[in-house]
Amino acid sequence: MGIQEWSATDIENARSYFLEGLAIKRIAKELGRTTTATNKALSRFGIRFEKPRKNFSESHSTYKKEKSLTPAAIVPSFERYALQKEFENWVSFWQVCQYLSSQNICLYELSVPNIDLKCRQFKVGTKTLNAGQLLVIANKRRIEENLKAFFVKGLSW
User: Fold this and answer.
1) 152 strand-pairing partners
2) For 9-18, what is each residue's pLDDT tens digit?
3) pTM score, whole prediction
């Protein structure tokens, strides 16, 4: 069996099946493909988001920045850098998505890859929401659990 190219129809069918909540094995069977190929295609074509991988260099550089702060830089102000230190929960949007998934909120990205975060659309249940609305949902949950709210660059600032 050779490699089959994914046509626009195959991709659209995969998206439809995935949004309907079909299992990957079932989607693969409907499309006549292997489970592995279908699973990879769901990520490759932006049908579902991939979990972000932690980058060692990013976490290391963040540690260095925090260590080099002087007492004068910690004085509260409304400048961006001071807010970053004051609100220690500046995270990536994908960390917010991970948090929502851990809260058993199933979400799927409907928008095409590589567009501005503010323009992205997500499906949660039967509702279509934007990234800002998802952030509000996540922060409501965190406040109910007595946790600090998330702040996301491009959405919170």
Assistant:
1) 91
2) 998 888 888 8
3) 0.46
